[in-house]
Amino acid sequence: MSRKWVEKEGLLWVEKNIVTREQYTQILDLYNDKKHAIGVLPLLGSILVGLGILSFVAANWQEIPQMARLLMIIVLMVACYGGGELFRKSGNDRLGLAMTTLGLISFGGGIVLIAQMFHLVSYDIMSFIVWGSVGTLLTYLYRSKFLYLISLLIFTCAQWYSTIEHDGFSYVGFIIMAVGLGYYGWKNQHMLLAWFFSLSIVLQSLILVLDREWKFLWIFIPLMALYAVGDWIKDRSSGFALQSVPLAAAFLFAIVMVLMFDDFTDGDRYELLAEPLYFIFSMLVILAASLFGKWTNGRISSGFEWVLLVPVIYLQSSIAVMYLVILFFFSFYVLWSGYMEQWRFKINFGTLLFIVTTMVAYGKLTWAFMDKSLFFILGGLILLGLSWFLNHRKKLVLSDMKKEEEPHD
Asked: Which residues form a coiled coil (predicted)?
């Protein structure tokens, strides 16, 4: 929630005698943007200092005696972690976190430099897994969202490096990250952490499918398992953040099917199709877990989101048309649920999905035979018209809801 929003809405609260002027001022003090901006500076500074130290040492590494190198790495880590503790005890939590972050960066850099110094050859990413695990432990120790995100970045980059350099997906790294950081996110529910965790899982699932050369549809098993986990989270914002990336991936897949499936060869289709018996059975199990979680938390109507996963790709004909119907249905559902929940973000998101779907349908139906200049002109007019109509409709609906909530004399 931003300070500007509180300033604007708070004046209405005062006018309606919901809060007093003094309470309004006290609420504003809780949303001091300057404090937040200043608090971010030490964290950004710690990253820049860490990168500067590593680049300086790496540039002069060969000229430094071997024992001096080892001593420098140890002293730097001890100084960073010790400095972090001293700053925390003196009440400077932000500077303490910055120093701890420097310690984590120097630890990872030290692993690489020591391996280079003693000519150690690695055939996997175990050193990166250790680095990410240390970051995870520090996340639990200091309960820091910033350390959480850095640890998540380490594991994600390590997985990419493992696939590129060692030709293999690291199941150990994936499990440690999923369990360690996943459990932390579950216990300390936060929308930003859930979103980035979901993004990392999706990226690593994509890396796994491509590395193992599995049929592409198998990627939706871990993605929708993650989606089902979101149904068991009571905090709706965190659950929605966890589910948004898998849904976005399914929506993007449906768009590709609409635009390109008619041009696919039998070989292209073969690369997509997982074994139908095992795939559909697995999806039904995940669907059951998802619906039970929705029912438990009173969100059973959101089960319509599963329409994106209807396996129409196994049909023999009209596949592109069916996916287009699914895209429109999903867009309408998001719009409808946004209005029902009076959730402005969801209304805007549903509006965007509907506009994208409309343009996909327009492109699919007209690109082949329409003059290209006319295609873009009409497309722009449709886009502007839809934007105006949907925004106008949104304002009317929200205005009506606001009037209904106002007390009547």
From this structure: none
